[in-house]
Amino acid sequence: MSAFMGELIGTTILMLLGNGVVANVSLKESKGFGSGLIVVTFGWAIAVFTAVFIVAPFSGAHINPAVTIGLAAAGKFSWELVPYYWLAQMLGAIIGACLVWLTYRDHYRVTEDKDAILGTFCNAPAIRSTFSNLFTETIGTFVLVFAVLYITGPTFGEQAGSLGALDALPVALVVLGIGLSLGGPTGYAINPARDLGPRIAHAFLPIPQKRDNDWSYSWIPVVGPLLGGLLAAGLYLAV
């Protein structure tokens, strides 16, 4: 498997299981309907674990543009490969969101809440405040990338910028902690592809009851995580 395919497949799995748990909790007549944030946070952590474990040997399992840019800024990944990884991550995120829609298509038909439907694809703030929302996404991603930089250690083994398969569990636990502690204000996108890719999918999928895509908010889950990744790299290099 090439690194490009590794990132594409890994991000697809991440979205399939991650957005899948949101759909399970949010869509009417699903068996998980109404089971709440704790189920969502554990579902996302398991999604991260599964994706990282599968594709780490092939691409390093970044599965997140903020992780990729953080590793590059820290000198542990080639800048030349950043656009290549970002493209794979975006495509994987769109494909994963489409697979969630296919899995839950009957439940989308019976769900009237358009905000809930959009929420199965992308994030929205609990309280809309540009500075607060941007800060939340930045600090949450900072924690993720800073942890990743230390989990991978001072060297990256045979493949630069790589999370090994054994690192899947600690990374998943970090994501779980971020979700439980910092997920309330914005839903903790902490990954530009995780939000933007499915948001694009929501725009073109034939969902009977759907609202606009809230493009005015869409830059925050992109810019905030990228800033968080860069800040994490800066502190890592400084200390």
Count of runs of 4 or more consecutive helical residues: 11
Per the principal axes of the C-alpha atoms, what is the gross shape?
globular
Largest sheet, in brief, is: none
CATH-defined topology: Glycerol uptake facilitator protein
CATH class: Mainly Alpha
Strand content: under 5%
What does this structure look like?
By secondary structure, the protein is mainly alpha-helical. The protein has one domain (3-238): Glycerol uptake facilitator protein (Up-down Bundle). The chain is 68% helix and 0% strand. It has 11 helices and no strands. It has helices spanning 3-26, 37-59, 65-73, 82-103, 105-110, 114-119, 130-151, 168-182, 192-204, 215-218, 220-238. Helix 2 (37-59) runs antiparallel to helix 8. The chain is globular, with a radius of gyration of 17 Å. The termini are far apart. Mean pLDDT is 94; it is low at 156-160.
